[in-house]
Write a structure and sequence with these properties.
Elements lengths: L14 E5 L4 H12 L3 E6 L8 H4 L7 E4 L5 H11 L3 E4 L6 H6 L1 H20 L5 E6 L25 H21 L6 E7 L3 E2 L9 H10 L4 E3 L5 E3 L1 E2 L1 H16 L7 E3 L7 E3 H11 L9 E3 L16 H7 L7 H18 L3 H18 L7
Parallel strand pairs: 1-2, 1-4, 2-3, 4-5, 5-6, 6-11, 7-10, 8-13
Antiparallel strand pairs: 9-12
Length: 371
């Protein structure tokens, strides 16, 4: 028997466009696609943070990047016409909940019109293309019940960010029914919803793990707002494996055209902010976890306390499920930052080694996308 391949080797030598490629998830996705042998392209209007995973991994030397605003329809059309991609993964967004309070119009225009622009260009695209539109678990109207949200549950949100993601999903649905719902159409689209992703290389503001790593790298104590808030923690590679598997299956199966899928962690991965900080502090060699953080009552903006996803649909259609256990999730995340701040290693090679380790664990677990 030959060695197992991942995602059916579908991305090798394919042109793959990633919007939002300079962001945290976009940088991880581009690195994985490069490892899969794809010809990778990106659209982003800026380097969003400093440090930046895109910069630290020197991804600009390993792929073709276009600086452009996803809200500029003419620019998006020109770039896609030039690339002629086989796959599109649309991640470009304003991703920070806190920023949506100070910049609501920018959040709405980026997350809603940016999505509309990608779909508008693809509706007149005359070559075969498989497009995955990524939104967020916050697209759901969160009433903080204990059940996981299904793809058929109500969309919405109490904050601007959540509303913009719900609106992006509605735009996706209306474009599908208006333009892409064709038996023999050359462009196929699906949407993917995931959230609360952690992993090395995230330096966004007002996110607990980046806040931790910035503080700990300087020998400072991190301040946390809501220690008892529960989050469904998952490593960034988990939803990315879902996006890539969905891309593979949609490429092969037209019946998935227009569908939406959740990608979330196992229910037992729901831990409080305080629990995950204590577990991560061990990897940073704190003798006492209480020296790693202090609790502050400074809650600057509304944030939902509980939001879980039901991922049965992805399990049913293509047997997707998470790979990492909680301990490995903590290790992958903590160790990436420790390598960056303390060992100052080659972060592209280190990131590739984590991807390879993740693939190996998925193969051992007989995860469907490795078969």
């Amino acid at each position: 028997m030959g060695e197992k391949v991942v995602f059916g080797n579908i991305y090798r030598d394919k042109k793959v466009l990633v919007t939002g490629n300079t962001g945290f998830k976009g940088s991880w996705l581009c690195t994985w696609l490069i490892s899969l042998g794809a010809e990778v392209y990106g659209i982003s209007n800026e380097i969003p943070t400093s440090p930046s995973m895109f910069v630290e991994l020197e991804l600009k030397t390993k792929m073709k990047h276009f600086f452009a605003d996803i809200r500029d329809l003419d620019a998006v059309r020109k770039i896609i016409s030039e690339i002629e991609p086989d796959f599109v993964f649309h991640l470009a967004a304003q991703p920070i909940v806190s920023l949506s309070y100070s910049e609501p119009i920018d959040t709405i225009s980026t997350n809603v019109m940016g999505t509309a622009n990608v779909l508008e260009v693809l509706r007149s695209y005359d070559k075969p293309c498989t497009a995955i539109i990524i939104t967020s678990d916050k697209c759901y109207d969160n009433v903080e019940w204990i059940f996981g949200y299904k793809e058929t549950d109500a969309l919405g949100g109490k904050d601007i960010y959540s509303g913009s993601k719900g609106a992006a999903e509605l735009i996706f649905k209306s474009y599908y029914h208006s333009f892409f719902k064709k038996e023999q159409g050359v462009v196929k689209i699906a949407s993917a919803r995931a959230g609360n992703v952690i992993g090395g290389g995230d330096w966004a503001l007002d996110r607990i793990i980046p806040d931790c790593m910035r503080s700990w790298s300087l020998g400072k104590v991190v301040e946390i707002r809501s220690p008892k808030a529960t989050r469904p923690w998952q490593h960034v590679l988990e939803p990315l494996s879902g996006y890539l598997q969905l891309g593979e299956r949609l490429y092969k199966d037209h019946t998935l055209n227009g569908e939406s899928f959740n990608f979330g962690p196992k229910p037992e991965y729901n831990h409080t902010v305080q629990e995950i900080l204590e577990d991560m502090s061990v990897r940073w060699h704190f003798e006492n976890s209480k020296d790693a953080y202090q609790i502050t009552g400074d809650i600057k903006f509304y944030e939902a306390g509980l939001l879980k996803l039901n991922c049965d649909k992805a399990l049913f259609y293509f047997q997707w499920k998470p790979t990492l256990d909680y301990t490995t999730l903590i290790g992958y995340t903590s160790d990436w930052y420790y390598e960056f701040y303390k060992n100052k290693g080659d972060m592209f090679l280190y990131t590739q080694s984590q991807i390879k380790g993740y693939e190996d664990l998925a193969k051992l677990g007989k995860i469907a996308w490795t078969k």
